[in-house]
Specification:
CATH topology: Ubiquitin-like (UB roll)
Number of domains: 1
Strand order of the largest sheet: 2-1-3
Shape: globular
Radius of gyration: 16 Å
CATH architecture: Roll
Distance between the termini: 43 Å
Amino acid sequence: MANADDKKLYIVHLGFYDQETNFGVYESHTNVFVAASTPQEAKLIAKAMPMYKNKKMHTDGIQEITAVQGFRVKLEPDASLDNDTVLNNFDYTQLNPANP
């Protein structure tokens, strides 16, 4: 693996058949964010995730996210995160126009 300066942000689109929710008739999907140096490395990282193995997932596609609405995406290592992924979630009550 390359050094942290070479890491890029990828979204990995995963497919699986979930007997609990759709009886395996239709394919379900989820997306995971991965920091990796190449799309091939991103796929290997996703494949190592417990849910990937538990749900017998497969990789449908990978996108590298380099910019969003005119802003470049640059990953910076932060040792205090202890390799965790942090997502800030907002529910519908927080997004209501009455609650700007």
